[in-house]
Amino acid sequence: MIKLIGVFKQKLINENNDHELVFVIDSWVFKRSAEQLVKRDYIIEIKEPRDQRSLDQNRLFWVIVEDIAKETGISKDSVYAQLIEMAGAKFDILAVKTEAIPRLKEAFRAVVELPTLERSDSDMVNVKVFYGSSKMNKKEMSELIEKTLEYADGCGLDTAFYGEQLRGFYYD
Prior knowledge:
With 172 residues, the protein is an alpha+beta fold. It contains 6 helices and 5 strands, in the order ββαααβαββαα. It has helices at residues 28-34, 52-72, 76-86, 101-107, 138-154, 160-170, and strands at 7-13, 19-24, 91-97, 110-113, 124-130. Helix 2 packs across helix 3 and helix 2 (52-72) runs parallel beside helix 5.
């Protein structure tokens, strides 16, 4: 699914008497997504955006996470779990049955299996569950952004543009 944010500019009626809607997309993050569009049918839902800054922040953050995943060959979810742990995000430690881990991954954004300690109930495992960046305050999100940029830089990614864009969201 591709989500775009744009400003409605005009409605045109073409030679077939069909309506053509024109939106201006000025954010580079959404322009990148728009480049994926091909000529075909789409379902279009138009609604007023939430806080524009938080949408752009979130989209850009996930672009960086995807770039790190591509560069390292690690899954996007694993990269995210590493980053959120490096940022010192809030977590809980739970002892769960091994088969419950997939359900935990649906409920929590990041789940990290902890080293197994000797347990009498061998079908149990300890996991660290993180609540995710959507629950972070501005300071916590700033820390996650810094750790993400450091990690991306360590992977050889050019982080100058990302850093400028993200720090503008969180440090003004």
